[in-house]
Specification:
The complex is a heterodimer. Chain A has ten helices and 15 strands. Chain A is of the alpha/beta class. Chain A has two domains: 147 residues, NAD(P)-binding Rossmann-like Domain (Rossmann fold, 3-Layer(aba) Sandwich), CATH 3.40.50; 166 residues, Dihydrodipicolinate Reductase, domain 2 (2-Layer Sandwich). Chain A has a nine-stranded mixed sheet. A six-stranded parallel sheet of chain A has the order 3-2-1-4-5-6, with helices on both faces. In chain A, strand 9 and strand 10 form a beta hairpin. Chain A is globular, with a radius of gyration of 20 Å. The termini of chain A are far apart. Chain B is an alpha/beta fold. Chain B has two domains: 145 residues, NAD(P)-binding Rossmann-like Domain (Rossmann fold, 3-Layer(aba) Sandwich); 178 residues, Dihydrodipicolinate Reductase, domain 2, CATH 3.30.360. Helix content of chain B is 33%, strand content 25%. In chain B, strand 4, helix 4 and strand 5 form a beta-alpha-beta unit. The longest helix of chain B is centred in the last third of the chain and has 17 residues. The two termini of chain B are 37 Å apart. Classes of the chains: A alpha/beta, B alpha/beta. At the A-B interface, strand 7, strand 8, strand 9, strand 10 and strand 11 of A face strand 7, strand 8, strand 9 and strand 10 of B.
Chain lengths: 334, 344
């Protein structure tokens, strides 16, 4: 029988629930511990997901010998401190997106993992979507011709309590931004995964509707190193949510990615749609979450790098920080 | 119309596909008749004149502008020629209706606006899409606040033109004649609708380049911008993708969103449902495949509006000040060129 690893989860929010469900479903990993600074919340989470060790101090969790790796699912600005501490305690770390809220922190995390010979993974689960795999296959096959343009649109509905009931959200200090760094970050990661690094960007952002200090709406235009042009629009303020969409155009065709779907529009105008039948964010017995955790577990067991290593998380972060820096006033070279 | 018997006389410069649509439109209206056509290609002028029973033809547009029996001049020539021809017409005391774009340079457009104002002449720009039912309905909805605060706007014109489209033209794909390509030519209608419906752009960053065609202008552009009212926007244009998408203007507010595709309006409501209204009945709609198919119903509405403006001495609905707005966005993208932020 294959080895079964023990995981600790730090943080018990929205994402942590998806992660815990996925771990309980997987056979090569089990949840050993959970931490929340409010012990009652940690206890409740521990009961729901049948977790033996519960604490309100993450240091107690990372000191626990039997734990192989921890998953950091905290307010963005806390990722760095907790990740560094876990690495120092010789735990592998799978950190939620974004990697950090600034590049210095992100680099520290990546460098320490390298020094310690530990695995640092970044939780971009959408890279494991069948739609992403199909899109990459189409792009890499070159059948879109000369690649020209890519557009991201992420129009989501976040009701005011989403920000009001979670005091860290909507703050520069803890969330480090909002619509871009929290929501659009997934599509930005996918686009950079599919088309490569971005060379320059200018972005505009502001708070149009939500009662927060960070941005609820943003747009940007950018150029990839390979010359492809891109645009991005995101908001958390629409009441009419739209499936987040990525369009990629070449001279000979285009693809449209909408979460679980990939539509390939061909030069003759005909199109072919590929659908992930089992993709559903709410049902965790599904592709993306279990895939990313399973890959991370396997990477530890087999002493190899995870499919989405921490340094990959620096890319989308650098791009987003470029937009924040640009603020519609300068062209930022990345 | 206050005086339906009053017939205006128009002269047309240019005999391309847009000019033919305009000639067809005028032939269908009672208020105006075509009395002269000018084109350097005299055969083109001759055949259009024969088809629409126009008495006077010339290869010299200045001659047409000087003719006494003409009330207004319609200019349907390569973009960069609009300025000198419009100026000549205004100097000869003719009202001017020019095809889009108004000109290829801001200074040229401003000069035309100034001269028309000084001489108390009408200057109109042929943005017939403003008369589309879909655009009028969108305007009503936005003005009545149905969409709530506007958050995001997008213009997407991802089309394909075959190589022959440029190779077979003596003016397309050239900076000194077309003044740009995918943005100033193909995307200008939805850009005009955008500035009309959402307002003017304040600050912009744009990219442009040639990816596919053998032209000196652009066949690809992308831009991000912020409007004077604080809404955000992006645009992307191309004439080089065979995976053509419908040209679309998308406007999203807090309470709902609109998509305008030609003369079809889609309303995305806050409850998650959508409502599609097709205003194309009675006219064709512009399509990605055929640039010639634009509704002549909207052409008629624009022409009648312009004639009424002359007769009743008021500003045409799409006047010079309106027509320059989309050009400002176009020029900002070209000037930005991936290097700088442009304040409009």
């Amino acid at each position: 029988m294959r080895k079964r690893l023990k995981a600790g989860i730090i943080g018990t929010g929205w994402s942590a629930n998806n992660i815990a469900k996925a771990i309980n479903w997987l056979k090569n990993v089990e949840l050993e511990g959970v931490c929340n600074h409010k012990i009652t919340t940690a206890v409740k989470f521990g009961e729901i997901y049948d977790i033996p060790f519960v604490t309100d101090d993450y240091k107690h969790l990372i000191e626990r010998k039997c734990i192989d790796f921890v998953i950091v699912s905290l307010p963005h600005a806390l990722h760095c401190e907790v990740t560094l501490a876990a690495l120092e305690s010789d735990k592998h770390v799978l950190v939620e997106k974004p990697l950090a809220t600034n590049l210095a922190d992100g680099n520290k995390m990546v460098n320490l993992a390298k020094e310690k010979g530990l695995n640092l993974g970044i939780y971009y689960q959408n890279r494991f979507n069948e739609s992403t795999i199909k899109a990459k296959e189409i792009i890499d096959a070159g059948i879109l011709g000369i690649l020209m343009q890519a557009n991201i649109s992420v129009f989501l509905k976040r009701d005011p309590p989403y920000y009001k009931d979670n005091s860290w959200r909507g703050t520069w200090k803890l969330e480090g931004g909002s619509a871009l760094i929290n929501q659009a970050v997934h599509e930005i990661d996918l686009l950079m995964y599919l088309l490569g690094d971005i060379e320059r960007v200018t972005g505009f952002y502001g708070t149009r509707f939500q009662n927060i200090e960070t941005e609820d709406t943003a747009c940007a235009a950018f150029k990839f190193q390979n010359g492809v042009f891109g645009t991005l629009q995101c908001t958390t303020a629409v009441k009419t949510p739209f499936p987040p969409t990525i369009n990629i155009f070449g001279t000979e065709g285009a693809i449209q990615i909408q979460k679980s779907l990939v539509k390939h529009i061909k030069a003759d105008g005909k199109s072919q749609t590929f659908k992930n039948l089992d993709f559903n964010l709410r049902d965790i017995k599904t592709a993306a979450h279990k895939s990313i955790i399973s890959d991370f577990v396997t990477s530890i067991i087999e002493h190899k790098a995870p499919a989405v290593p921490g340094k990959e998380g620096l890319k989308a972060l650098e791009f987003i920080l470029g937009i924040y820096k640009s603020k519609g006033k300068s062209v930022v070279k990345l | 119309m206050s005086d339906s018997k009053k017939i205006l006389k128009a002269g047309l410069i240019g005999t391309g596909s847009s000019a033919t649509n305009i000639a067809e439109t005028i032939a269908s209206l009672d208020i105006v008749e075509m009395v002269g056509i000018a084109d350097v290609n005299v055969d083109g002028a001759k055949s259009l004149a024969e088809k629409y029973n126009v008495e006077y033809i010339t290869k010299n547009y200045e001659e047409l502008c000087k003719k006494d029996n003409i009330d207004f001049i319609i200019i349907s020539t390569p973009h960069a020629l609009h300025y000198k021809m419009a100026k000549c017409a205004l100097e000869n005391n003719k009202h001017v209706l020019t095809e889009k774009p108004i000109t290829t340079k801001i200074s040229h457009a401003e000069d035309l606006i100034k001269v028309a104002r000084e001489k108390k002449l009408k200057l109109g720009v042929h943005f017939q899409c403003r008369f589309f039912g879909a655009v009028k309905k969108a305007e009503d909805m936005i003005n009545s606040g149905v969409l709530g605060k506007i958050l995001q706007v997008n213009v997407s014109v991802m089309w394909h033109r075959p190589h022959e489209y440029y190779d077979g033209s003596n003016w397309k794909g050239k900076w000194d004649l077309e003044g740009g390509s995918s943005l100033i030519n193909q995307a200008i209608h939805p850009l005009d609708e955008m500035v009309h419906l959402v307002g003017e752009v304040k600050t912009l960053f744009g990219l442009m380049g040639v990816k596919y065609h053998n032209i000196e202008t652009e066949d690809n552009t992308a831009a991000a911008f912020v409007f004077q009212n604080g809404a955000f926007g992006t645009l992307q244009t191309s004439t080089a993708t065979k995976a053509a998408f419908p040209a679309k203007l998308t406007i999203f507010g807090v309470e709902g969103g609109l998509e305008i595709d030609g003369n079809i309006l889609t309303y995305h409501k806050a409850d998650g449902t959508s409502e599609v209204t097709d205003f194309t009945a009675g006219g064709q709609v512009g399509s990605a495949k055929d640039p010639k198919l634009f509704s002549l119903k909207a052409h008629s509405a624009l022409m009648e509006d312009f004639c009424d403006a002359i007769i009743n001495d008021r500003k045409p609905t799409v006047n010079g000040e309106e027509g320059i707005k989309s050009l400002k966005v176009v020029r900002a993208v070209y000037e930005s060129n991936g290097e700088k932020i442009i304040h409009l």
